[in-house]
Structure formats: structure tokens, C-alpha cells
Amino acid sequence: AAWRPLFDTLLPRALGAVPRSGVRREQAVLLRCGRTVVRGQIDLLFHDGLGWTLVDYKAGRLDAALDAYALQMRLYALAVRGVVGELPRRALLWSLPDARAVDIPATAQELDALETGLLAAFTERTRTGELAPPAQRPCRPCAYRDSCGLSLARA
Hints:
Oligomer: single chain
Helix content: 25-40%
Distance between the termini: 22 Å
Number of strands: 5
């Protein structure tokens, strides 16, 4: 299966020593920026003793939408900072079809700059329709729908 390399690499080693209390799955987040509230759901967030690691799984290939995904991860990093008081040590996008992880830089300087320009970016993306809700539920077109526990639970 395409998801197998994920379990053969980083997550079991990283999560193996983490106490259950340090792991958050499907963590809902709200980020308030001025009058705008961004809602999201972090796939995996864990603290390994060195810091927080943020992981987001993608059912599609990363190349075409990497910039949008990077923005999403940085927003999640801002939300994590707002809740736990520190930035994630690492932010990883994991593409299931590509079977690879991509580190997304999320330094304090980058996030401060993002926070400063965030309202302008939201306004522009909302104006162009980039942030419009999808016409259909995300599970419907997903290639992993038949084997995903989340999709099966929603059926």
C-alpha cells in the first residue's frame, strides 16, 4: 500500500518513546487574526521531549500545491504557538502517493512575518476564491477512502 513507507520510516521511531499524553491526533485548532478566525484540524502533533512536531498527511501529490500546504502548516504552527507557548520544532507534510515527507520551515521570524501579513493574504485568497469551502467532502475523491478509518467512520 502507498501509505506503508510512512510507517516504515519516521513516525514509529519518533512516536515510540513519546508518552501517550504527549500525542494529539486530529487536533482541532482555531487561530484568530483580527476579525478573521481560521479553523483547521492538525492530523498529528506530538512532543518528544525536544519540542513539538506537527505532521499533516496529504492524499495528493505535494508538488502542485506545496505553497498552499506550506501556508496551511505555518498557520497551524501559529496556532500551536498560541496554545502551548512555543513553536513546533518541526513541521512535516507527508504525501501518501509520493511516500515522502517534506519539512516546512516555520521559524519565529517567518511566522512573525506571516502574522504581520496574514490579514492581507486572507483577504486576497478569499477574494479570488482560493479559500472557498470545497464543493464536496474531501473523502469522496480521495484515493485512500476505502482503507481509511476516518472515511469509513463517516460513511
